Amino acid sequence: MRKVRTLAIGTIALAILCLVAYPVYAQVAKGAAHAKEMCKMMDENKMTLAKAITAAEEHCKGTALQAAAHMQNKDLMVNVYCLAGDKIMLAKVDGKTGKVTAADEVKELGGHPEKKHEGKPKESPKKKP
Fold it and tell me: Which domains does the chain have, with CATH numbers?
């Protein structure tokens, strides 16, 4: 009886491990295919990370600290973080043209620009006397 219980627990543990491991494995394989697609687009557009960094440094008038390519709506984009004076700037470089499409200040490396409030500012609740 004890052997049956040990075998059942082992089988259940193995099944749980497989259920967890498969999605992780699938994501890793997807990541490699995604990276190959980005490299193919860079080759087609004669784009390199070095060119994106140069464009960002010239635009921000600073020094590049970090760069990473990613896909945005099937278009290649390169995010380059530059230090310009006392500010960290995030320059977005188009993977087809090699030109900076946007440059915004961020609070930290890897951060995103703060969204600007559009429209009327919200009124603070009025206190009753």
Answer: 45-106 (3.10.450.40)
